[in-house]
Amino acid sequence: MSKLVIDGVGRTFPGVHGGAPTLALTPVSLAVADNDFITILGPSGCGKSTLLRIVAGLDRPTEGRVLLDGAEVSGPGADRGMVFQSYTLFPWLTIEENVRFGLREKGLPVAEQASIARHWIRKVGLEGFERHYPKMLSGGMQQRTAIARALANAPKILLLDEPFGALDHQTRGLMQELLLAIWESEKTTVLFVTHDIEEAIFMASRVVVMSARPGRIKADVAVPIAHPRLYTVKTTPAFSSLKARLTEEIRAEALKVEGAALPGD
Amino acid sequence: MKPLVPVSRARKVALGIAFFVVFVAAWSVATLGGFVSKTFLADPLTMLVEGWELFAKHGFAYDVGITVWRVLGGFVLAALFGVPLGIAMGAFKPVEAFFEPFVSFARYLPASAFIPLLILWAGIGEAQKLLVIFIGVFFQIVLMVAVTVGSTRRDLVEAAYTLGAGPRGIVRRVLLPSASPQIAETLRLVLGWAWTYVIVAELIGASSGIGHMITDSQALLNTGQIIFGIIMIGLIGLVSDFAFKWANQRMYPWALH
User: Fold this and answer.
1) How far away is chain B from the Cα of A168, in angstroms, using its nearest Cα?
2) Beta bridge partner(s), residue A31
3) A101, B180: Cβ pair inside 8 Å?
4) Under a CB-based contact definition with an 8 Å cutoff, are residues A143 and A175 in contact?
5) Does the beta-carbon distance from B162 to A135 stay under 8 Å?
6) Would A81 be classed as within a structural domain?
């Protein structure tokens, strides 16, 4: 059964100063199965983040609807956890208090909040940093906390908007392994937006490729690589051929955006 | 000197003190050297002697106490009403649309020009002094707090929404803590302005306070006392400023740069 159904969701931004409205997203339909890990891959500005924000309820679609477990999404809620590209830990709260934010909002007993927080902090490998403030932590550690904070709420689906985009290449690789290991053990349904091809393949069971603006779904590619996946799969022939294929798809889209500026191509 | 290169702590303190030394030295040369008439400007030594006499013979400590009380009273009153209103305006746009134009207008009304009116309404008692300060700082507090709360990082608000926070949770657990350090900083700044208003209020229709002493001394051409009074205000301001800064750093360790 589909956990999440995106049903003809489109978004048009009104024109600025009487200009023509911008079509950011042509109506997109997509079904995400329970426990699935799907990455949405696309060039920057293709509307993939807009789509994710609509699923999160932070933005409203101009047409279509989003269903989660059959119920229409009408605004943000704790059932859809989100990890943002920017560092969004609350700077006035410690790591532990950040992870407990949603639990406190739900009104759970303090002892229960503490035990859930302890579980997730251990899961993302941040034991010993509970009392630190976010600014004392590296970018990678902050994003790990953000993942723990979202998962502590036990959301029905975890949404990630280029969460590792601001990290250096090595850290990004480690983060992918960590998130994948969590998914392999927890089987949370995940929708992950990225423009990094390798990242998209490594973690997903399905890669959804989006076209350049106005965004639409261009390809839906299954990733037939068995779990658990180690970082070493990135150098296997199966991975390489998928990467080659997706590189072509994305390059064609990137060219549409940048093509005019490329000499002799 | 290279632009924006920081100085060491010791040098910073030394340089800061050095200007006070230069200032007092220039003042001494001008007065003790006979370049400026004693009628217009007392020399530093006379000023100190006059200051000591103020405390010893004229009960100046009482004047200082009453002035401090007025400043704090007016300031606390303005903060008590101004901070919540500012928060409501920053958080809720209809509230802001309702109050903002009037507050922006009222902010430019000079508090000192209200003194004659306030004397008519409230007499020359303490209520009038507190009202002058209140009018002088209330609208500033409201606007500055509203701007601070309104400029809370949107991504933090969105993150809180996705964690299940409702409007109440957003205000109490995101907007308030996020704005607190800047609100405290605003209050520190505004306390300084409260000091200028209290002296103005005391120059007219007062029978006690530092400002009243200064008007009295003017009648007696005692510039030493006047300058001592002014310096006294500066010192109290400096102390309260340090206290505020220290408290802010203790209360908001996460906001330190």
Assistant:
1) 22
2) A5
3) no
4) yes
5) no
6) no
Q: Is residue A55 part of a domain?
A: yes
Using the Cβ of B65 and the Cβ atoms of chain A, whether some distance falls under 8 Å is answered with no
The 3-state DSSP class for residue A90 equals coil
- Mean local confidence (pLDDT), A61-76: 94
Q: How far is it, in rounded angstroms, from Cα A77 to Cα B201?
A: 54
Burial class for B119, CB neighbours closer than 10 Å (0-12, 13-18, 19+):
middle
> CB of A92 within 8 Å of any CB in chain B?
yes
Which residue ranges in chain B fall short of pLDDT 70? 256-257
**Cα–Cα distance between B24 and A152 in angstroms, integer?**
63
Report the 3 state secondary structure along A138-154. CHHHHHHHHHHHHHHCC
Q: Which of A131, A236, A140, A147 is nearest to A190 (CA)?
A: A147
Alpha-carbon span B157 to A88, nearest angstrom: 9
Contact yes or no for A153 and B163 at CB 8 A: yes
DSSP A158: E
CA distance B186 to B190: 6
Structure tokens at A8: 């003809």
Helix (H, G, I), strand (E, B) or coil at A43: coil
> pTM (2 decimals)?
0.88
Residues A194-228: pLDDT tens digits? 999 999 999 999 999 998 878 889 889 999 998 88
Cβ <8 Å between B253 and A102: no
What is the nearest CA distance from B145 to chain A, expressed in angstroms?
18
Q: Which residue has the tokens 């408290």?
A: B247
| Structure tokens given for A212 | 């350049």
Sheet architecture: strand order including A80-83: A80-83, A157-161, A189-194, A37-41, A206-210, A217-222
> How far apart, in whole angstroms, are the C-alpha atoms of residue B73 and residue B80?
10
Number of domains chain A is built from: 1
**Alpha carbon distance B190, B206 (integer Å):** 23
Give ipTM to 2 decimals. Answer: 0.92
The DSSP string of B163-193 is: TT--HHHHIIIIIHHHHHHHHHHHHHHHHHH
Domains, chain B, in order of start with CATH, read 38-255 (1.10.3720.10)
- CB contact (8 A) between residue A82 and residue B159: yes
Q: Please tell me the predicted confidence (pLDDT) of residue A265.
A: 47
CB B170 within 8 A of CB A89: no
The CATH number for A9's domain is 3.40.50.300
B254–chain A Cβ distance below 8 A for any pair: yes
How many other β-carbons are positioned within 10 Å of the β-carbon of residue B125?
12
Q: Which pLDDT does position A262 carry in this prediction?
A: 59
Domain with A3 in it = 1-73+189-257
CB-nearest partner of A84 from B159, B253, B255: B159
Helices B223-251, B210-219: inter-axial angle, 10-degree rounding: 160
